[in-house]
């Protein structure tokens, strides 16, 4: 999209995935002997479907295994009785810097609209309620001075601790050498230090009170509060900020799940081998196979065998695992020799963050009505230190039902409601919001049963997304770089990893797409294919621009 200010041109590996995708030469080509060969893909989320879609275009036959619902954590659930209005239980806001992700959004003909984040025009208005104090605002300048001081302090901390402007400028220019010159020293400086350490030790925040740090944790800026990320490595947060993940976010009109489902159904016109009308759906005879129960190397064929939950086994020259990494040691009996012990350590040490959401459908976007005394909107996008934490309002038009995400919470706040059913969660959320909006009867507008989710309670996910802890850079490096298999022993080749938890940007669909494209390059190489000389792929440039290696 030409009006994007910059792309998620990652500082760890500054490769232009969007340019690779859009080049007229295509991603590469395979020898004739490989055409039609089967490749297993474990998981039909966005990573698996992007990978399968591109492998199909190259001439391979992706064979999908899915234990649950197609779409992964792009999960849009309709309210009973209304097929047009959805609750976005997983990914719901997508930064415009995610150019590879938007490549597929546009290819599938989907529309987007600005996401109603706090203090944005799309939100209309924002209410921040902390410690019993309530503040109404439409822009940052409307808030008390402490909020502006916090925003300015964070900007100053980023400059002081991360050369933020220079790094972001290098990313805008796609200057790989300049990016690496700034980023590689930051990796060594901040890998073992937390986000909170970054805040508390910066000169800008040291000059302010603890209350300023508390406000930053509870409210933050852009997408809301940051305190659930305070224990994470600062590198994780720097990547979010410097690649624009936290700004200019859009939603997908009609639901994000449309993207994986359209990738599944779409029949490209520019394929190398398959006849017109071929889609992932048709190649898989209408539906994915059941979930994978076992992955092992067949000693007789030297291929990688996948046994599904019905007990049926098939063998493949290549397998792409896009499920969350913990499932390879819990839900799927995976032969230990397929991965090195250091990689197993990385997969098992992955730390997943908890997340909970509760949605209701309401009769209309009543929150746009004005209070006759104050002139304020009746209800606003709300950030609070109460149980709800973040409350988002979705307007589908004055004559259409609206949707309220009553609560979006992470980590300990999400765990508080883990044992509770949807009705109890709704009751608690309404009770909390009634203290912020005592004159608004939200319940009278509800026209649906509530829809809720706790991702850590789902056996196919065990958490919402990765949140790397201090010292996890080496683990992430091992997982992300696993698609480079030229130097691996023979018994470890042919199985590839993808998904946002393999990426450097967990929780963002762009990370899932980029690692899927890494896997495409890896599988193509496995089958003796290659990229065009004027359109090198990620593996071709990885030796020159790959992530910096820390001491063992």
Structure, described:
This protein has 552 residues and is α+β, with helices and mostly antiparallel strands. Helices cover 32% and strands 18% of the residues. It contains 18 helices and 22 strands. Strands 8-7-17-18-19-16-20 form a 7-stranded mixed β-sheet, with helices on both faces. Helix 4 crosses helix 9.
Concise description?
With 552 residues, this protein is α+β, with helices and mostly antiparallel strands. It is built from 18 helices and 22 strands.
From the structure above, extract its key features.
four-stranded parallel beta sheet, 552 residues, 22 strands, seven-stranded mixed beta sheet, alpha+beta, globular, disordered N terminus
The tally of strands reads 22
Q: Low-confidence stretches at least 5 residues in length (pLDDT < 50)? A: 1-5
The coarse silhouette is globular
For the record, give the distance between the C-alpha atoms at the N and C termini, rounded to a whole number: 40 Å
Main β-sheet: number of strands, strand sense, barrel status?
Answer: 7 strands, mixed
Residue share in β-strands: 15-25%
User: Structural class from helices and strands?
Assistant: alpha+beta
- Strand arrangement in the largest pleated sheet: 8-7-17-18-19-16-20
């Amino acid at each position: 999209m030409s009006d994007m200010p910059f792309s998620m041109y990652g500082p760890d590996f500054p490769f232009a995935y969007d340019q690779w995708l859009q080049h007229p030469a295509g991603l590469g080509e395979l020898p004739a002997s490989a055409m039609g060969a089967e490749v297993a893909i474990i998981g039909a989320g966005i990573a698996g479907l992007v990978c399968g879609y591109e492998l199909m275009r190259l001439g391979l036959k992706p064979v999908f295994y899915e234990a649950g619902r197609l779409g992964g954590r792009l999960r849009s659930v309709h309210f009973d009785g209304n097929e047009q209005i959805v609750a976005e239980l997983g990914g719901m806001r997508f930064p415009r810097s995610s150019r590879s992700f938007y490549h597929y959004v546009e290819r599938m003909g989907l529309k987007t609209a600005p996401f109603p984040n706090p203090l944005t025009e799309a939100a209309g208005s924002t209410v921040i309620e902390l410690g019993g104090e309530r503040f109404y605002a439409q822009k940052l300048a409307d808030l008390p001075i402490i909020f502006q001081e916090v925003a300015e302090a964070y900007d100053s901390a980023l400059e002081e601790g991360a050369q933020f402007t220079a790094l972001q400028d290098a990313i805008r220019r796609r200057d790989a050498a300049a990016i690496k010159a700034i980023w590689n020293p930051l990796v060594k400086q901040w890998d073992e230090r937390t986000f909170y350490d970054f805040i508390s030790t910066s000169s800008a925040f040291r000059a302010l009170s603890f209350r300023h740090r508390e406000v930053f944790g509870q409210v933050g800026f852009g997408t809301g509060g940051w305190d659930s990320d305070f224990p994470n490595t600062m590198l994780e947060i720097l990547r979010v900020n410097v690649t624009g993940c936290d700004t200019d976010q859009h939603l997908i009109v009609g639901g994000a799940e449309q993207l994986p489902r359209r990738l599944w159904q779409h029949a490209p016109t520019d394929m190398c081998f398959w006849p017109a009308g071929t889609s992932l759906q048709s190649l898989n005879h209408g539906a994915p196979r059941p979930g994978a129960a076992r992955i092992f190397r067949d000693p007789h064929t030297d291929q990688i065998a996948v046994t599904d939950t019905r007990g049926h086994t098939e063998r493949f020259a290549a397998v792409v695992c896009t499920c969350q990494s913990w499932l390879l040691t819990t839900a799927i009996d995976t032969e230990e020799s397929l991965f090195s012990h250091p990689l197993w350590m990385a997969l098992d040490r992955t730390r997943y963050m908890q997340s909970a959401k509760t949605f209701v459908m309401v009769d209309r976007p009543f929150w746009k009505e004005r209070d006759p005394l104050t002139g304020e909107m009746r209800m606003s996008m709300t950030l609070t230190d109460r149980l709800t934490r973040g409350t988002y309002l979705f307007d589908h038009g004055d004559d259409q039902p609206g949707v309220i995400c009553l609560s979006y919470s992470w980590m300990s706040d999400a765990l508080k409601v883990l044992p509770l059913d949807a009705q109890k969660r709704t009751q608690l959320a309404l009770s909390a919001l009634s203290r912020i909006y005592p004159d608004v009867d939200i319940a009278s507008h509800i026209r649906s049963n509530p829809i809720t989710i706790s991702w850590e309670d789902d056996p196919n996910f065990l958490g919402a997304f990765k949140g790397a802890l201090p010292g996890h850079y080496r683990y992430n490096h091992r997982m992300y770089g696993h698609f480079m298999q030229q130097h691996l022993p023979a018994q470890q080749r042919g199985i590839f990893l993808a998904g946002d938890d393999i990426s450097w940007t967990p929780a963002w669909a762009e990370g899932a797409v980029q690692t899927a494209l890494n896997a495409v390059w890896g599988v193509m190489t496995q089958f003796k294919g290659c990229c065009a000389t004027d359109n090198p792929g990620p593996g071709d440039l990885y030796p020159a621009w790959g992530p910096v290696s820390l001491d063992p």
